[in-house]
Protein backbone atom coordinates (compact mmCIF):
# COMPACT_ATOMS: atom_id res chain seq x y z
CA UNK A 1 0.00 0.00 0.00
CA UNK A 2 1.13 3.52 -0.62
CA UNK A 3 1.20 5.63 2.50
CA UNK A 4 2.55 8.90 1.09
CA UNK A 5 0.90 12.31 0.87
CA UNK A 6 -0.50 11.66 -2.60
CA UNK A 7 -2.69 8.84 -1.30
CA UNK A 8 -3.92 10.98 1.56
CA UNK A 9 -4.81 13.53 -1.10
CA UNK A 10 -6.79 10.90 -2.97
CA UNK A 11 -8.69 10.07 0.20
CA UNK A 12 -9.45 13.71 0.98
CA UNK A 13 -10.73 14.04 -2.59
CA UNK A 14 -12.94 11.03 -2.00
CA UNK A 15 -14.41 12.69 1.09
CA UNK A 16 -15.25 15.73 -1.03
CA UNK A 17 -16.84 13.48 -3.64
CA UNK A 18 -18.83 11.77 -0.91
CA UNK A 19 -20.33 15.12 0.11
CA UNK A 20 -21.56 15.71 -3.46
CA UNK A 21 -22.95 12.19 -3.80
CA UNK A 22 -24.78 12.12 -0.48
CA UNK A 23 -28.04 13.16 -2.18
CA UNK A 24 -28.21 9.90 -4.17
CA UNK A 25 -31.05 7.71 -2.85
CA UNK A 26 -28.83 4.66 -2.34
CA UNK A 27 -26.54 6.69 -0.10
CA UNK A 28 -28.89 9.24 1.42
CA UNK A 29 -31.04 6.52 2.95
CA UNK A 30 -28.19 5.66 5.33
CA UNK A 31 -26.60 7.78 7.99
CA UNK A 32 -22.88 7.18 8.03
CA UNK A 33 -19.75 7.65 10.09
CA UNK A 34 -16.20 8.09 8.93
CA UNK A 35 -13.68 5.54 10.19
CA UNK A 36 -9.88 5.29 10.11
CA UNK A 37 -9.10 4.10 6.60
CA UNK A 38 -9.33 0.36 6.02
CA UNK A 39 -8.60 -1.71 2.91
CA UNK A 40 -10.28 -4.66 1.24
CA UNK A 41 -8.36 -7.22 -0.84
CA UNK A 42 -10.73 -8.69 -3.42
CA UNK A 43 -10.48 -11.37 -6.09
CA UNK A 44 -13.64 -10.26 -7.91
CA UNK A 45 -13.30 -9.53 -11.63
CA UNK A 46 -12.98 -5.88 -12.61
CA UNK A 47 -16.32 -5.77 -14.47
CA UNK A 48 -18.40 -7.40 -11.72
CA UNK A 49 -21.02 -5.38 -9.85
CA UNK A 50 -22.30 -8.20 -7.65
CA UNK A 51 -21.67 -11.86 -7.16
CA UNK A 52 -20.41 -14.46 -4.73
CA UNK A 53 -16.96 -15.30 -3.43
CA UNK A 54 -16.52 -12.61 -0.77
CA UNK A 55 -15.40 -15.40 1.56
CA UNK A 56 -12.12 -15.30 -0.40
CA UNK A 57 -11.64 -11.57 0.28
CA UNK A 58 -9.66 -10.08 3.14
CA UNK A 59 -9.86 -6.93 5.25
CA UNK A 60 -6.99 -4.82 6.53
CA UNK A 61 -8.35 -2.87 9.50
CA UNK A 62 -5.02 -1.01 9.66
CA UNK A 63 -3.00 0.17 6.66
CA UNK A 64 -0.44 -2.62 6.17
CA UNK A 65 2.04 -0.32 4.44
CA UNK A 66 3.45 1.62 7.40
CA UNK A 67 3.75 -1.59 9.46
CA UNK A 68 5.30 -3.59 6.62
CA UNK A 69 8.88 -4.79 6.26
CA UNK A 70 11.01 -3.92 3.23
CA UNK A 71 12.18 -6.89 1.18
CA UNK A 72 15.78 -5.84 1.77
CA UNK A 73 15.25 -6.41 5.50
CA UNK A 74 13.86 -9.92 5.12
CA UNK A 75 16.92 -11.54 6.71
CA UNK A 76 16.50 -9.31 9.76
CA UNK A 77 12.87 -10.41 9.93
CA UNK A 78 14.06 -14.03 9.94
CA UNK A 79 16.55 -13.32 12.70
CA UNK A 80 13.75 -11.75 14.74
CA UNK A 81 11.87 -15.05 14.69
CA UNK A 82 9.57 -13.84 11.88
CA UNK A 83 8.08 -11.16 14.14
CA UNK A 84 7.89 -7.75 12.43
CA UNK A 85 8.83 -4.59 14.36
CA UNK A 86 5.09 -3.75 14.50
CA UNK A 87 4.41 -7.08 16.24
CA UNK A 88 2.73 -9.10 13.51
CA UNK A 89 3.98 -12.58 12.55
CA UNK A 90 5.34 -13.38 9.09
CA UNK A 91 4.25 -16.72 7.57
CA UNK A 92 6.79 -18.17 5.11
CA UNK A 93 4.01 -20.24 3.51
CA UNK A 94 1.55 -17.37 3.03
CA UNK A 95 2.97 -13.87 2.59
CA UNK A 96 2.04 -10.63 0.87
CA UNK A 97 3.82 -7.88 -1.09
CA UNK A 98 2.66 -4.38 -1.98
CA UNK A 99 3.62 -2.20 -4.95
CA UNK A 100 6.56 -0.68 -3.12
CA UNK A 101 8.32 -3.92 -2.23
CA UNK A 102 7.00 -4.13 1.32
CA UNK A 103 6.18 -7.45 2.94
CA UNK A 104 2.74 -6.86 4.42
CA UNK A 105 0.77 -8.26 7.29
CA UNK A 106 -1.92 -10.58 5.89
CA UNK A 107 -5.47 -9.24 5.91
CA UNK A 108 -8.23 -10.70 8.05
CA UNK A 109 -9.97 -13.69 6.42
CA UNK A 110 -12.77 -14.29 5.64
CA UNK A 111 -14.22 -10.88 4.85
CA UNK A 112 -16.55 -9.80 7.68
CA UNK A 113 -20.17 -9.46 6.60
CA UNK A 114 -21.50 -5.91 6.64
CA UNK A 115 -21.82 -2.69 4.67
CA UNK A 116 -18.85 -0.53 3.73
CA UNK A 117 -18.49 2.74 1.83
CA UNK A 118 -15.67 2.07 -0.62
CA UNK A 119 -13.82 4.28 -3.08
CA UNK A 120 -11.04 4.25 -5.64
CA UNK A 121 -9.58 7.22 -3.77
CA UNK A 122 -10.49 9.67 -6.51
CA UNK A 123 -14.00 10.11 -7.87
CA UNK A 124 -15.96 6.90 -7.40
CA UNK A 125 -17.83 5.85 -4.28
CA UNK A 126 -20.22 2.97 -3.67
CA UNK A 127 -21.84 1.14 -0.80
CA UNK A 128 -20.48 -2.41 -0.69
CA UNK A 129 -22.73 -4.98 0.93
CA UNK A 130 -21.17 -8.29 2.02
CA UNK A 131 -23.70 -10.90 3.09
CA UNK A 132 -23.41 -13.47 5.88
CA UNK A 133 -22.08 -16.87 4.73
CA UNK A 134 -24.67 -19.31 3.40
CA UNK A 135 -24.87 -22.97 4.39
CA UNK A 136 -21.87 -23.72 2.16
CA UNK A 137 -19.81 -20.84 3.54
CA UNK A 138 -20.26 -18.72 0.39
CA UNK A 139 -20.70 -14.96 0.77
CA UNK A 140 -22.63 -12.84 -1.70
CA UNK A 141 -21.74 -9.19 -2.29
CA UNK A 142 -23.01 -6.20 -4.25
CA UNK A 143 -22.06 -2.59 -5.06
CA UNK A 144 -24.54 0.30 -5.18
CA UNK A 145 -25.08 2.85 -7.96
CA UNK A 146 -24.21 0.39 -10.74
CA UNK A 147 -20.52 0.65 -9.82
CA UNK A 148 -18.14 -2.13 -10.80
CA UNK A 149 -15.11 -3.43 -8.94
CA UNK A 150 -12.94 -1.52 -11.43
CA UNK A 151 -14.75 1.72 -10.55
CA UNK A 152 -13.84 1.45 -6.85
CA UNK A 153 -10.38 -0.16 -7.16
CA UNK A 154 -7.52 2.02 -5.97
CA UNK A 155 -5.15 1.68 -8.91
CA UNK A 156 -1.88 2.69 -7.22
CA UNK A 157 -2.32 -0.01 -4.56
CA UNK A 158 -1.39 -3.47 -5.76
CA UNK A 159 -1.17 -6.49 -3.54
CA UNK A 160 -0.11 -10.05 -4.22
CA UNK A 161 -0.25 -13.18 -2.10
CA UNK A 162 2.51 -15.78 -2.37
CA UNK A 163 2.22 -19.44 -1.39
CA UNK A 164 4.62 -22.34 -2.02
CA UNK A 165 4.52 -24.44 -5.17
CA UNK A 166 6.62 -27.29 -3.83
CA UNK A 167 5.96 -27.72 -0.15
CA UNK A 168 6.53 -25.70 2.99
CA UNK A 169 9.31 -23.08 2.92
CA UNK A 170 9.87 -23.43 -0.84
CA UNK A 171 8.53 -19.91 -1.46
CA UNK A 172 10.71 -17.20 0.06
CA UNK A 173 10.86 -13.40 -0.20
CA UNK A 174 14.62 -13.74 -0.68
CA UNK A 175 13.84 -14.90 -4.25
CA UNK A 176 11.85 -11.76 -5.08
CA UNK A 177 13.49 -9.32 -7.49
CA UNK A 178 13.81 -6.11 -5.49
CA UNK A 179 14.85 -4.17 -8.60
CA UNK A 180 11.30 -4.11 -10.00
CA UNK A 181 10.04 -1.97 -7.11
CA UNK A 182 8.36 0.40 -6.82
CA UNK A 183 6.04 -0.88 -9.51
CA UNK A 184 5.17 1.54 -12.29
CA UNK A 185 1.53 2.35 -13.09
CA UNK A 186 -0.07 -0.68 -14.67
CA UNK A 187 2.72 -3.09 -13.71
CA UNK A 188 1.76 -6.33 -12.03
CA UNK A 189 3.38 -7.71 -8.88
CA UNK A 190 6.25 -9.99 -9.90
CA UNK A 191 6.28 -13.73 -9.98
CA UNK A 192 8.67 -15.19 -7.40
CA UNK A 193 10.60 -18.41 -7.95
CA UNK A 194 9.03 -21.34 -6.10
CA UNK A 195 5.79 -19.45 -5.46
CA UNK A 196 2.22 -19.36 -6.60
CA UNK A 197 1.09 -15.75 -7.01
CA UNK A 198 -2.45 -14.50 -6.54
CA UNK A 199 -3.27 -10.86 -7.35
CA UNK A 200 -5.83 -8.89 -5.35
CA UNK A 201 -7.50 -5.59 -6.20
CA UNK A 202 -7.63 -3.07 -3.34
CA UNK A 203 -10.69 -1.06 -2.28
CA UNK A 204 -10.43 1.80 0.20
CA UNK A 205 -13.01 1.79 3.03
CA UNK A 206 -13.56 5.21 4.57
CA UNK A 207 -17.03 5.10 6.16
CA UNK A 208 -19.67 2.77 7.53
CA UNK A 209 -23.44 3.28 7.53
CA UNK A 210 -25.13 3.77 10.88
CA UNK A 211 -27.93 1.28 10.68
CA UNK A 212 -31.00 1.96 12.81
Encode the helix/strand succession as letters.
Answer: HHEEEEHEEEEEEE
Provide the number of structural domains: 1
Q: Assembly state here?
A: single chain
What would the average pLDDT be, to the nearest integer?
Answer: 89
Number of helices: 3
Q: Specify Rg, calculated over alpha carbons.
A: 18 Å
Shape: globular
Q: Which structural class do you get from the secondary structure elements?
A: alpha+beta
Helix content: 10-25%
- CA-CA gap between termini: 34 Å
Report on the architecture of this protein.
Strands 1, 2, 3, 4, 5, 6, 7, 8, 9, 10 and 11 form an eleven-stranded antiparallel beta sheet that branches. It is built from three helices and eleven strands; from the N terminus they run H-H-E-E-E-E-H-E-E-E-E-E-E-E. The model is unreliable at 2-10 (pLDDT under 50). The chain is globular, with a radius of gyration of 18 Å. It is of the alpha+beta class. The chain is 13% helix and 31% strand.
Amino acid sequence: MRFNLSRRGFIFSAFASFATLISKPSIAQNKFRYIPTQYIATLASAEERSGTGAETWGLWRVDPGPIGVWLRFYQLLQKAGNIAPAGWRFDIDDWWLDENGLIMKAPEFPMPAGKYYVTNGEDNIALLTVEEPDSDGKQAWSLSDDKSIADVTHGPCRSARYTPKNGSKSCSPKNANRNVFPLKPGEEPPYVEGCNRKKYAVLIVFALPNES
